[in-house]
Amino acid sequence: MEQTVVFIVIAFILVSLYFSWMGTAMTFMLGTLVLGLFGILTPKEILIGFGNEQIWLIIVLLIIGDIIRKKGILNRFFNYFLNRENSSTKMFRLRMMIAVAPLSSFLNNTPLVAILMPYVSNWGNRYDVASSKLLIPLSYAAILGGTLTLIGTSTNLIVNGFVESQTLYSENLSLSMFDFTLVGLPMLIIGILYLYFFSDLLLPDRKPPVDDILDNPRNYIVDTIVNKGSDLIGKSVQNAGLRNLKGLFLAEIHKSNKTISPVLPSQIIEEGDVLSFAGDTNTISNSLTQIDGLEPVELGVYKHKTETKMVEVVLSHNSDMAGKTIKEMGFRGKFDAVVIAVHRNGEKVTGKIGSIRLNSGDVLLMIAGEDFTKRIKSITDFYLLTTGPTYYKPQILEGTILIGGLILAIILSIMDVLPLFIGVSITMMLAVAFKIVHPKDLNRSIDFNLIIIIALSLALGTAMVKSGAADIIVHGLIPLFKPFGVLGIMFGLYFITSILAAYITNLASVALIFPIALAYAHSEALDPMPFVLLVAFAAAANFMTPIGYQTNLMVYGPGGYKFTDYFKIGAPLTAIYMIVTVGILNYWYF
After folding, report:
1. Three-class DSSP category at 81
2. 12: CB partners within 8 A, 6+ apart
3. H helix or E strand, kind and range, residue 51
4. Which of 177, 249, 218 is nearest to 415 (CA)?
5. pLDDT of 365
6. What is the per-residue pLDDT across 279-337, written as a single tens digit (0 to 9) for each?
7. Residue 371: Cβ within 10 Å count
8. CB atoms < 10 A from the CB of 323, how many?
9. Could you tell me the domains of the chain?
10. 93 membership: H or E segment, kind and range
11. What element of type H or E holds 588?
Protein backbone atom coordinates (compact mmCIF):
# COMPACT_ATOMS: atom_id res chain seq x y z
CA MET A 1 0.00 0.00 0.00
CA GLU A 2 2.75 2.45 0.99
CA GLN A 3 4.69 1.76 -2.19
CA THR A 4 1.58 2.37 -4.32
CA VAL A 5 1.02 5.75 -2.66
CA VAL A 6 4.67 6.73 -3.18
CA PHE A 7 4.49 5.83 -6.89
CA ILE A 8 1.26 7.84 -7.29
CA VAL A 9 2.91 10.84 -5.61
CA ILE A 10 5.99 10.53 -7.86
CA ALA A 11 3.78 10.33 -10.95
CA PHE A 12 1.82 13.38 -9.79
CA ILE A 13 5.03 15.38 -9.21
CA LEU A 14 6.42 14.48 -12.65
CA VAL A 15 3.19 15.28 -14.51
CA SER A 16 2.52 18.47 -12.52
CA LEU A 17 6.02 19.82 -13.12
CA TYR A 18 6.01 18.90 -16.81
CA PHE A 19 2.65 20.56 -17.51
CA SER A 20 3.21 23.39 -15.00
CA TRP A 21 -0.07 22.70 -13.19
CA MET A 22 1.15 24.58 -10.14
CA GLY A 23 4.40 26.01 -8.82
CA THR A 24 7.26 23.62 -8.08
CA ALA A 25 7.18 24.39 -4.35
CA MET A 26 3.41 23.83 -4.16
CA THR A 27 3.76 20.54 -6.06
CA PHE A 28 6.30 19.20 -3.57
CA MET A 29 4.25 20.49 -0.62
CA LEU A 30 1.14 18.70 -1.83
CA GLY A 31 3.08 15.50 -2.57
CA THR A 32 4.73 15.33 0.86
CA LEU A 33 1.42 16.23 2.56
CA VAL A 34 -0.18 13.16 0.96
CA LEU A 35 2.73 11.03 2.17
CA GLY A 36 2.14 12.42 5.65
CA LEU A 37 -1.62 11.77 5.54
CA PHE A 38 -1.02 8.10 4.72
CA GLY A 39 1.52 7.78 7.52
CA ILE A 40 4.44 7.06 5.20
CA LEU A 41 6.28 10.10 6.56
CA THR A 42 6.05 11.49 10.09
CA PRO A 43 5.87 15.29 10.56
CA LYS A 44 9.48 15.14 11.80
CA GLU A 45 10.60 13.35 8.62
CA ILE A 46 8.78 15.88 6.44
CA LEU A 47 10.36 18.85 8.22
CA ILE A 48 13.81 17.45 9.01
CA GLY A 49 15.15 18.72 5.69
CA PHE A 50 14.80 22.31 6.91
CA GLY A 51 17.49 21.54 9.47
CA ASN A 52 19.91 20.18 6.88
CA GLU A 53 23.21 22.09 6.96
CA GLN A 54 23.47 22.19 3.15
CA ILE A 55 20.20 24.14 2.85
CA TRP A 56 21.42 26.84 5.19
CA LEU A 57 24.79 26.88 3.44
CA ILE A 58 22.95 27.53 0.15
CA ILE A 59 21.01 30.40 1.81
CA VAL A 60 24.16 32.11 3.10
CA LEU A 61 26.01 31.67 -0.22
CA LEU A 62 23.03 33.14 -2.10
CA ILE A 63 23.06 36.16 0.22
CA ILE A 64 26.81 36.75 -0.15
CA GLY A 65 26.64 36.31 -3.94
CA ASP A 66 23.78 38.80 -4.20
CA ILE A 67 25.65 41.36 -2.07
CA ILE A 68 28.71 40.99 -4.32
CA ARG A 69 26.47 41.55 -7.38
CA LYS A 70 24.69 44.60 -5.96
CA LYS A 71 27.86 46.23 -4.70
CA GLY A 72 29.64 45.84 -8.05
CA ILE A 73 32.68 44.32 -6.36
CA LEU A 74 33.67 42.32 -9.45
CA ASN A 75 32.85 45.07 -11.94
CA ARG A 76 36.39 46.43 -12.16
CA PHE A 77 37.75 42.95 -12.90
CA PHE A 78 35.17 42.38 -15.65
CA ASN A 79 35.75 45.86 -17.06
CA TYR A 80 39.46 45.13 -17.40
CA PHE A 81 39.11 41.57 -18.61
CA LEU A 82 36.24 41.95 -21.07
CA ASN A 83 36.36 45.47 -22.45
CA ARG A 84 39.29 44.91 -24.82
CA GLU A 85 39.10 46.77 -28.11
CA ASN A 86 39.21 45.21 -31.57
CA SER A 87 38.57 41.72 -30.29
CA SER A 88 37.01 39.12 -32.53
CA THR A 89 33.76 37.52 -31.40
CA LYS A 90 35.55 34.21 -30.84
CA MET A 91 38.25 35.78 -28.66
CA PHE A 92 35.74 37.80 -26.65
CA ARG A 93 33.68 34.66 -26.09
CA LEU A 94 36.81 32.79 -24.96
CA ARG A 95 37.85 35.56 -22.53
CA MET A 96 34.31 35.72 -21.19
CA MET A 97 34.24 31.96 -20.51
CA ILE A 98 37.71 31.98 -18.96
CA ALA A 99 36.61 34.81 -16.67
CA VAL A 100 33.29 33.35 -15.54
CA ALA A 101 34.08 29.64 -15.17
CA PRO A 102 36.65 29.81 -12.32
CA LEU A 103 34.52 32.36 -10.44
CA SER A 104 31.39 30.22 -10.76
CA SER A 105 33.20 27.37 -9.02
CA PHE A 106 33.09 29.39 -5.80
CA LEU A 107 30.24 31.86 -6.32
CA ASN A 108 26.60 31.08 -7.01
CA ASN A 109 25.93 30.98 -10.76
CA THR A 110 22.78 33.08 -10.76
CA PRO A 111 24.17 36.41 -9.39
CA LEU A 112 27.38 35.89 -11.38
CA VAL A 113 25.52 35.62 -14.69
CA ALA A 114 23.35 38.58 -13.63
CA ILE A 115 26.54 40.64 -13.18
CA LEU A 116 27.98 39.64 -16.54
CA MET A 117 24.91 39.91 -18.78
CA PRO A 118 25.14 43.72 -19.17
CA TYR A 119 28.85 43.54 -20.04
CA VAL A 120 28.27 40.85 -22.64
CA SER A 121 25.24 42.55 -24.20
CA ASN A 122 26.99 45.93 -24.26
CA TRP A 123 30.03 44.48 -26.01
CA GLY A 124 27.70 42.95 -28.59
CA ASN A 125 25.95 46.29 -29.08
CA ARG A 126 29.26 48.11 -29.53
CA TYR A 127 30.49 45.72 -32.21
CA ASP A 128 27.10 44.85 -33.73
CA VAL A 129 27.28 41.22 -32.59
CA ALA A 130 23.94 39.58 -31.80
CA SER A 131 23.47 38.71 -28.12
CA SER A 132 22.32 35.27 -29.28
CA LYS A 133 25.94 34.52 -30.20
CA LEU A 134 27.17 35.29 -26.69
CA LEU A 135 24.64 34.65 -23.92
CA ILE A 136 24.24 30.86 -24.14
CA PRO A 137 28.06 30.45 -23.93
CA LEU A 138 27.93 32.71 -20.84
CA SER A 139 25.34 30.48 -19.18
CA TYR A 140 27.10 27.27 -20.19
CA ALA A 141 30.47 28.51 -18.92
CA ALA A 142 28.88 29.28 -15.54
CA ILE A 143 27.39 25.77 -15.45
CA LEU A 144 30.70 24.15 -16.43
CA GLY A 145 32.57 26.12 -13.77
CA GLY A 146 29.93 25.35 -11.16
CA THR A 147 30.61 21.61 -11.44
CA LEU A 148 34.23 22.07 -10.32
CA THR A 149 33.53 22.25 -6.57
CA LEU A 150 31.01 21.37 -3.89
CA ILE A 151 29.78 24.97 -3.57
CA GLY A 152 29.92 25.85 -7.27
CA THR A 153 26.25 25.07 -7.79
CA SER A 154 23.33 24.55 -5.45
CA THR A 155 22.73 21.16 -7.12
CA ASN A 156 26.00 19.81 -5.72
CA LEU A 157 25.09 21.05 -2.25
CA ILE A 158 21.63 19.47 -2.55
CA VAL A 159 23.20 16.13 -3.48
CA ASN A 160 25.50 16.44 -0.46
CA GLY A 161 22.40 17.06 1.64
CA PHE A 162 20.96 13.77 0.36
CA VAL A 163 24.26 12.02 1.11
CA GLU A 164 24.32 13.25 4.70
CA SER A 165 20.64 12.32 5.18
CA GLN A 166 20.90 8.77 3.75
CA THR A 167 20.12 5.79 5.98
CA LEU A 168 21.23 2.84 3.84
CA TYR A 169 24.88 3.04 4.87
CA SER A 170 25.77 2.98 8.54
CA GLU A 171 28.89 5.09 8.07
CA ASN A 172 28.66 8.85 7.71
CA LEU A 173 29.07 9.77 4.05
CA SER A 174 29.92 13.26 2.86
CA LEU A 175 31.37 15.02 -0.16
CA SER A 176 34.47 17.21 0.12
CA MET A 177 35.11 20.50 -1.66
CA PHE A 178 37.06 19.08 -4.62
CA ASP A 179 35.49 15.64 -5.10
CA PHE A 180 33.84 17.10 -8.21
CA THR A 181 37.09 18.39 -9.75
CA LEU A 182 38.09 14.96 -11.05
CA VAL A 183 35.40 15.21 -13.74
CA GLY A 184 34.65 18.94 -13.60
CA LEU A 185 38.11 20.17 -14.62
CA PRO A 186 38.59 18.09 -17.80
CA MET A 187 34.99 18.83 -18.80
CA LEU A 188 35.52 22.55 -18.21
CA ILE A 189 38.41 22.50 -20.70
CA ILE A 190 36.54 20.32 -23.20
CA GLY A 191 33.35 22.38 -22.85
CA ILE A 192 35.11 25.72 -23.40
CA LEU A 193 36.91 24.36 -26.47
CA TYR A 194 33.59 23.01 -27.82
CA LEU A 195 31.89 26.39 -27.35
CA TYR A 196 34.89 28.24 -28.81
CA PHE A 197 34.88 26.25 -32.04
CA PHE A 198 31.17 25.53 -32.54
CA SER A 199 29.22 28.49 -31.12
CA ASP A 200 29.31 30.49 -34.35
CA LEU A 201 28.10 27.47 -36.29
CA LEU A 202 25.36 26.26 -33.93
CA LEU A 203 24.03 29.48 -32.37
CA PRO A 204 21.51 31.69 -34.19
CA ASP A 205 22.27 35.23 -35.31
CA ARG A 206 19.03 36.67 -33.99
CA LYS A 207 17.87 40.06 -32.81
CA PRO A 208 16.22 39.78 -29.38
CA PRO A 209 12.54 40.71 -29.31
CA VAL A 210 13.19 43.53 -26.87
CA ASP A 211 14.90 45.49 -29.63
CA ASP A 212 11.70 45.44 -31.66
CA ILE A 213 9.34 46.75 -29.00
CA LEU A 214 11.19 49.81 -27.77
CA ASP A 215 8.77 52.67 -28.09
CA ASN A 216 10.70 55.49 -29.79
CA PRO A 217 13.45 55.91 -27.19
CA ARG A 218 14.50 59.52 -26.61
CA ASN A 219 17.74 60.72 -28.19
CA TYR A 220 20.26 62.87 -26.35
CA ILE A 221 23.56 64.62 -26.97
CA VAL A 222 25.95 63.71 -24.16
CA ASP A 223 29.39 65.30 -23.74
CA THR A 224 32.02 62.94 -22.31
CA ILE A 225 35.61 63.56 -21.35
CA VAL A 226 38.63 61.29 -21.86
CA ASN A 227 40.20 60.84 -18.43
CA LYS A 228 43.87 60.54 -17.56
CA GLY A 229 45.05 56.93 -17.94
CA SER A 230 42.21 55.97 -20.26
CA ASP A 231 42.88 53.08 -22.65
CA LEU A 232 41.46 55.29 -25.44
CA ILE A 233 44.40 57.74 -25.34
CA GLY A 234 46.63 57.51 -28.42
CA LYS A 235 44.20 55.34 -30.36
CA SER A 236 42.29 56.27 -33.47
CA VAL A 237 38.49 56.42 -33.30
CA GLN A 238 38.40 53.23 -35.38
CA ASN A 239 40.87 51.31 -33.20
CA ALA A 240 39.19 52.50 -30.01
CA GLY A 241 35.96 50.84 -31.12
CA LEU A 242 34.00 54.13 -31.19
CA ARG A 243 33.25 54.14 -34.90
CA ASN A 244 30.32 51.74 -35.23
CA LEU A 245 28.69 51.77 -31.83
CA LYS A 246 25.18 50.34 -32.08
CA GLY A 247 22.66 53.07 -31.19
CA LEU A 248 25.42 55.59 -30.37
CA PHE A 249 27.02 58.06 -32.77
CA LEU A 250 30.19 60.06 -32.17
CA ALA A 251 29.13 63.45 -33.54
CA GLU A 252 31.97 65.77 -32.50
CA ILE A 253 35.31 65.90 -30.74
CA HIS A 254 36.15 69.10 -28.86
CA LYS A 255 39.84 69.69 -28.33
CA SER A 256 41.38 72.60 -26.44
CA ASN A 257 41.54 74.81 -29.52
CA LYS A 258 39.09 73.36 -32.05
CA THR A 259 35.98 71.31 -32.73
CA ILE A 260 36.23 68.37 -35.10
CA SER A 261 33.10 67.43 -37.04
CA PRO A 262 32.50 65.13 -38.82
CA VAL A 263 34.83 62.77 -36.96
CA LEU A 264 37.07 60.66 -39.20
CA PRO A 265 37.93 57.04 -38.29
CA SER A 266 41.63 57.98 -38.26
CA GLN A 267 41.19 60.81 -35.71
CA ILE A 268 43.51 60.25 -32.73
CA ILE A 269 42.00 60.56 -29.25
CA GLU A 270 43.93 62.53 -26.63
CA GLU A 271 43.64 63.02 -22.90
CA GLY A 272 41.13 65.76 -22.06
CA ASP A 273 39.24 65.50 -25.38
CA VAL A 274 35.50 66.05 -25.06
CA LEU A 275 33.56 63.54 -27.16
CA SER A 276 29.95 64.40 -28.02
CA PHE A 277 27.77 61.32 -28.51
CA ALA A 278 24.24 61.18 -29.87
CA GLY A 279 22.23 58.22 -28.62
CA ASP A 280 19.04 56.95 -27.06
CA THR A 281 18.29 56.44 -23.39
CA ASN A 282 18.97 52.73 -23.32
CA THR A 283 22.27 52.89 -25.17
CA ILE A 284 23.62 55.73 -23.06
CA SER A 285 22.60 53.98 -19.85
CA ASN A 286 23.93 50.56 -20.78
CA SER A 287 26.95 51.30 -22.98
CA LEU A 288 28.39 54.79 -22.73
CA THR A 289 28.84 54.78 -18.97
CA GLN A 290 30.80 51.52 -19.15
CA ILE A 291 33.43 52.53 -21.71
CA ASP A 292 36.62 52.55 -19.67
CA GLY A 293 38.19 55.98 -19.13
CA LEU A 294 35.20 57.89 -20.51
CA GLU A 295 32.64 59.72 -18.38
CA PRO A 296 30.04 62.50 -18.77
CA VAL A 297 31.62 65.95 -18.45
CA GLU A 298 29.09 67.02 -15.84
CA LEU A 299 29.63 63.99 -13.63
CA GLY A 300 32.01 65.73 -11.23
CA VAL A 301 31.83 64.47 -7.64
CA TYR A 302 29.23 61.90 -8.64
CA LYS A 303 31.93 59.58 -9.97
CA HIS A 304 33.08 59.15 -6.35
CA LYS A 305 29.63 58.34 -4.94
CA THR A 306 29.17 54.77 -3.78
CA GLU A 307 25.65 54.48 -5.20
CA THR A 308 24.21 56.12 -8.33
CA LYS A 309 21.54 55.43 -10.95
CA MET A 310 20.50 56.91 -14.26
CA VAL A 311 17.02 58.46 -14.30
CA GLU A 312 14.81 60.47 -16.66
CA VAL A 313 12.39 63.17 -15.54
CA VAL A 314 10.02 65.42 -17.48
CA LEU A 315 9.30 69.03 -16.51
CA SER A 316 5.60 69.62 -15.74
CA HIS A 317 3.58 72.23 -17.65
CA ASN A 318 3.54 74.60 -14.64
CA SER A 319 7.07 73.90 -13.45
CA ASP A 320 8.88 76.75 -11.70
CA MET A 321 12.05 75.50 -13.41
CA ALA A 322 10.83 76.60 -16.86
CA GLY A 323 12.83 79.58 -18.07
CA LYS A 324 15.70 78.94 -15.65
CA THR A 325 19.08 77.36 -16.21
CA ILE A 326 20.20 74.24 -14.39
CA LYS A 327 23.00 76.23 -12.76
CA GLU A 328 20.62 78.90 -11.47
CA MET A 329 18.51 76.29 -9.72
CA GLY A 330 21.42 74.70 -7.84
CA PHE A 331 20.20 71.37 -9.18
CA ARG A 332 22.92 69.17 -7.69
CA GLY A 333 22.62 70.41 -4.12
CA LYS A 334 18.83 70.50 -4.20
CA PHE A 335 18.08 67.09 -5.70
CA ASP A 336 21.29 65.03 -5.29
CA ALA A 337 21.46 64.57 -9.06
CA VAL A 338 23.46 65.87 -12.01
CA VAL A 339 21.90 66.54 -15.43
CA ILE A 340 24.01 65.10 -18.24
CA ALA A 341 21.68 65.69 -21.23
CA VAL A 342 18.40 67.36 -22.26
CA HIS A 343 15.81 66.10 -24.76
CA ARG A 344 13.40 68.62 -26.29
CA ASN A 345 10.90 67.11 -28.79
CA GLY A 346 13.52 66.08 -31.31
CA GLU A 347 15.34 69.43 -31.18
CA LYS A 348 19.11 69.21 -30.89
CA VAL A 349 19.97 70.74 -27.49
CA THR A 350 23.68 71.48 -27.23
CA GLY A 351 25.97 73.71 -25.24
CA LYS A 352 27.07 73.62 -21.61
CA ILE A 353 24.45 71.75 -19.63
CA GLY A 354 24.46 74.26 -16.78
CA SER A 355 23.64 77.12 -19.16
CA ILE A 356 20.69 75.50 -20.97
CA ARG A 357 17.44 77.35 -20.23
CA LEU A 358 14.76 74.74 -19.63
CA ASN A 359 11.25 74.61 -21.08
CA SER A 360 8.13 72.83 -19.86
CA GLY A 361 8.07 69.33 -21.38
CA ASP A 362 11.87 68.99 -21.46
CA VAL A 363 13.12 65.56 -20.54
CA LEU A 364 16.27 65.52 -18.41
CA LEU A 365 18.67 62.59 -18.33
CA MET A 366 20.38 62.55 -14.95
CA ILE A 367 22.74 60.57 -12.77
CA ALA A 368 21.20 60.54 -9.32
CA GLY A 369 22.61 59.81 -5.89
CA GLU A 370 21.03 57.70 -3.17
CA ASP A 371 19.06 60.67 -1.69
CA PHE A 372 17.40 61.62 -4.98
CA THR A 373 14.23 59.57 -4.45
CA LYS A 374 13.63 61.05 -0.99
CA ARG A 375 14.19 64.63 -2.13
CA ILE A 376 11.67 64.53 -5.02
CA LYS A 377 8.76 63.05 -3.04
CA SER A 378 6.99 66.39 -2.61
CA ILE A 379 8.18 67.92 -5.90
CA THR A 380 5.64 68.84 -8.61
CA ASP A 381 8.08 70.62 -10.93
CA PHE A 382 8.92 67.36 -12.68
CA TYR A 383 7.81 63.75 -12.84
CA LEU A 384 9.95 60.63 -12.87
CA LEU A 385 9.80 58.80 -16.23
CA THR A 386 12.31 55.96 -16.03
CA THR A 387 14.82 54.62 -13.54
CA GLY A 388 17.80 52.61 -14.71
CA PRO A 389 19.77 50.05 -12.73
CA THR A 390 21.67 51.19 -9.64
CA TYR A 391 25.46 51.36 -10.01
CA TYR A 392 27.67 50.76 -6.98
CA LYS A 393 31.23 52.01 -6.78
CA PRO A 394 33.23 49.12 -5.34
CA GLN A 395 34.91 49.84 -2.00
CA ILE A 396 38.18 48.15 -1.03
CA LEU A 397 36.87 47.26 2.43
CA GLU A 398 33.72 45.67 1.01
CA GLY A 399 35.68 43.57 -1.46
CA THR A 400 38.20 42.51 1.20
CA ILE A 401 35.49 41.38 3.63
CA LEU A 402 33.28 39.58 1.11
CA ILE A 403 35.79 38.02 -1.31
CA GLY A 404 38.54 37.60 1.27
CA GLY A 405 36.11 36.17 3.83
CA LEU A 406 34.72 33.70 1.31
CA ILE A 407 38.20 32.53 0.25
CA LEU A 408 39.34 32.21 3.88
CA ALA A 409 36.18 30.23 4.78
CA ILE A 410 36.87 27.80 1.92
CA ILE A 411 40.53 27.35 2.90
CA LEU A 412 39.68 26.74 6.57
CA SER A 413 37.00 24.25 5.52
CA ILE A 414 39.44 22.31 3.32
CA MET A 415 41.91 22.21 6.23
CA ASP A 416 39.14 20.97 8.58
CA VAL A 417 39.76 23.96 10.85
CA LEU A 418 36.25 25.44 10.57
CA PRO A 419 33.02 24.11 9.03
CA LEU A 420 32.21 25.88 5.78
CA PHE A 421 28.77 26.96 7.02
CA ILE A 422 30.30 28.68 10.07
CA GLY A 423 32.97 30.38 7.93
CA VAL A 424 30.58 31.83 5.35
CA SER A 425 28.12 32.81 8.11
CA ILE A 426 30.86 34.82 9.82
CA THR A 427 31.55 36.53 6.47
CA MET A 428 27.87 37.45 6.17
CA MET A 429 27.79 38.79 9.77
CA LEU A 430 30.89 40.91 9.06
CA ALA A 431 29.08 42.39 6.05
CA VAL A 432 26.25 43.41 8.37
CA ALA A 433 28.59 44.69 11.10
CA PHE A 434 30.51 46.91 8.64
CA LYS A 435 27.20 48.17 7.15
CA ILE A 436 27.90 46.70 3.72
CA VAL A 437 24.34 45.44 3.80
CA HIS A 438 21.38 46.30 6.04
CA PRO A 439 20.01 43.36 8.07
CA LYS A 440 16.50 44.03 6.72
CA ASP A 441 17.77 43.52 3.16
CA LEU A 442 19.17 40.02 3.76
CA ASN A 443 15.89 38.20 3.20
CA ARG A 444 15.52 39.76 -0.25
CA SER A 445 18.41 37.60 -1.49
CA ILE A 446 16.80 34.35 -0.36
CA ASP A 447 14.80 32.22 -2.77
CA PHE A 448 12.28 30.79 -0.30
CA ASN A 449 10.68 28.60 -2.97
CA LEU A 450 14.07 26.97 -3.60
CA ILE A 451 14.52 26.26 0.09
CA ILE A 452 11.06 24.65 0.36
CA ILE A 453 11.71 22.50 -2.73
CA ILE A 454 15.09 21.30 -1.46
CA ALA A 455 13.82 20.45 2.04
CA LEU A 456 10.75 18.61 0.78
CA SER A 457 12.70 16.76 -1.92
CA LEU A 458 14.85 15.33 0.89
CA ALA A 459 11.61 14.12 2.51
CA LEU A 460 10.52 12.53 -0.78
CA GLY A 461 13.84 10.67 -0.97
CA THR A 462 13.31 9.39 2.57
CA ALA A 463 9.83 8.14 1.60
CA MET A 464 11.20 6.29 -1.43
CA VAL A 465 13.79 4.45 0.66
CA LYS A 466 11.56 3.91 3.70
CA SER A 467 8.65 2.46 1.70
CA GLY A 468 10.85 0.25 -0.47
CA ALA A 469 9.80 2.10 -3.64
CA ALA A 470 13.45 2.80 -4.49
CA ASP A 471 14.25 -0.93 -4.32
CA ILE A 472 11.31 -1.76 -6.60
CA ILE A 473 12.48 0.77 -9.18
CA VAL A 474 16.03 -0.56 -8.92
CA HIS A 475 14.87 -4.13 -9.57
CA GLY A 476 12.64 -2.98 -12.43
CA LEU A 477 15.01 -0.51 -14.07
CA ILE A 478 18.45 -1.99 -13.54
CA PRO A 479 17.81 -5.22 -15.51
CA LEU A 480 17.39 -3.08 -18.64
CA PHE A 481 21.02 -1.95 -18.36
CA LYS A 482 22.55 -4.87 -16.41
CA PRO A 483 23.59 -6.84 -19.53
CA PHE A 484 26.03 -4.00 -20.21
CA GLY A 485 27.59 -4.22 -16.74
CA VAL A 486 28.22 -1.42 -14.27
CA LEU A 487 29.23 0.85 -17.15
CA GLY A 488 25.85 0.38 -18.82
CA ILE A 489 23.99 1.05 -15.58
CA MET A 490 25.97 4.27 -15.06
CA PHE A 491 25.10 5.44 -18.59
CA GLY A 492 21.44 4.58 -17.96
CA LEU A 493 21.26 6.46 -14.65
CA TYR A 494 23.03 9.48 -16.14
CA PHE A 495 20.73 9.57 -19.17
CA ILE A 496 17.52 9.34 -17.12
CA THR A 497 18.70 11.96 -14.60
CA SER A 498 19.75 14.30 -17.40
CA ILE A 499 16.42 14.03 -19.24
CA LEU A 500 14.42 14.63 -16.05
CA ALA A 501 16.60 17.63 -15.21
CA ALA A 502 16.27 19.09 -18.71
CA TYR A 503 12.50 18.86 -19.01
CA ILE A 504 11.31 19.07 -15.41
CA THR A 505 13.84 20.47 -12.89
CA ASN A 506 17.28 19.44 -11.71
CA LEU A 507 16.00 19.37 -8.11
CA ALA A 508 13.23 16.94 -9.00
CA SER A 509 15.65 14.71 -10.92
CA VAL A 510 17.98 14.52 -7.91
CA ALA A 511 15.08 13.78 -5.55
CA LEU A 512 13.86 10.91 -7.74
CA ILE A 513 17.09 9.32 -8.99
CA PHE A 514 19.43 9.71 -6.00
CA PRO A 515 17.62 7.10 -3.83
CA ILE A 516 17.54 4.70 -6.80
CA ALA A 517 21.26 5.11 -7.54
CA LEU A 518 22.21 4.71 -3.88
CA ALA A 519 19.92 1.67 -3.46
CA TYR A 520 21.58 -0.01 -6.45
CA ALA A 521 25.09 0.64 -5.11
CA HIS A 522 24.05 -0.75 -1.72
CA SER A 523 22.40 -3.85 -3.18
CA GLU A 524 25.52 -4.68 -5.21
CA ALA A 525 27.94 -3.78 -2.37
CA LEU A 526 29.58 -1.14 -4.59
CA ASP A 527 31.26 2.10 -3.57
CA PRO A 528 28.39 4.66 -3.44
CA MET A 529 30.55 7.71 -4.30
CA PRO A 530 30.70 7.29 -8.11
CA PHE A 531 26.91 6.97 -8.21
CA VAL A 532 26.46 10.01 -5.97
CA LEU A 533 28.75 12.08 -8.22
CA LEU A 534 27.09 10.69 -11.34
CA VAL A 535 23.67 11.97 -10.24
CA ALA A 536 25.16 15.35 -9.28
CA PHE A 537 26.86 15.87 -12.65
CA ALA A 538 23.84 14.64 -14.66
CA ALA A 539 21.52 17.07 -12.83
CA ALA A 540 23.87 20.08 -12.74
CA ALA A 541 25.43 19.88 -16.23
CA ASN A 542 22.18 20.80 -17.91
CA PHE A 543 22.47 22.34 -21.38
CA MET A 544 19.58 21.03 -23.49
CA THR A 545 16.67 23.29 -22.45
CA PRO A 546 16.15 26.78 -21.04
CA ILE A 547 14.09 25.40 -18.14
CA GLY A 548 16.70 22.88 -17.04
CA TYR A 549 18.92 25.40 -15.27
CA GLN A 550 18.23 28.89 -13.90
CA THR A 551 21.04 30.62 -15.83
CA ASN A 552 19.73 29.14 -19.11
CA LEU A 553 16.37 30.71 -18.36
CA MET A 554 17.97 34.05 -17.44
CA VAL A 555 19.52 34.46 -20.93
CA TYR A 556 16.51 33.05 -22.82
CA GLY A 557 14.68 36.36 -23.36
CA PRO A 558 17.65 38.78 -23.66
CA GLY A 559 19.26 36.49 -26.23
CA GLY A 560 16.10 36.19 -28.33
CA TYR A 561 16.43 32.40 -28.20
CA LYS A 562 13.98 29.68 -29.13
CA PHE A 563 13.58 26.44 -27.19
CA THR A 564 15.27 24.48 -29.98
CA ASP A 565 18.40 26.66 -29.90
CA TYR A 566 19.40 25.10 -26.59
CA PHE A 567 18.94 21.57 -27.86
CA LYS A 568 20.94 22.24 -31.03
CA ILE A 569 24.08 23.36 -29.19
CA GLY A 570 23.36 21.71 -25.81
CA ALA A 571 22.57 18.13 -26.82
CA PRO A 572 26.08 17.40 -28.22
CA LEU A 573 27.65 19.01 -25.14
CA THR A 574 25.40 16.91 -22.87
CA ALA A 575 26.42 13.73 -24.74
CA ILE A 576 30.12 14.63 -24.41
CA TYR A 577 29.66 15.38 -20.71
CA MET A 578 27.93 12.02 -20.17
CA ILE A 579 30.68 10.04 -21.93
CA VAL A 580 33.49 11.83 -20.06
CA THR A 581 31.76 11.60 -16.67
CA VAL A 582 30.92 7.90 -16.90
CA GLY A 583 34.35 7.10 -18.36
CA ILE A 584 36.32 8.90 -15.65
CA LEU A 585 34.19 7.70 -12.73
CA ASN A 586 34.22 4.11 -13.97
CA TYR A 587 38.01 4.14 -14.47
CA TRP A 588 38.73 5.86 -11.14
CA TYR A 589 36.42 3.86 -8.86
CA PHE A 590 36.15 0.47 -10.58
Report:
1. helix
2. 27, 30, 31
3. none
4. 177
5. 85
6. 776 667 666 656 767 778 777 665 666 678 888 888 887 788 888 888 888 888 888 88
7. 12
8. 11
9. 74-206+468-589 (no CATH), 219-392 (3.30.70.1450)
10. helix 89-104
11. helix 563-589
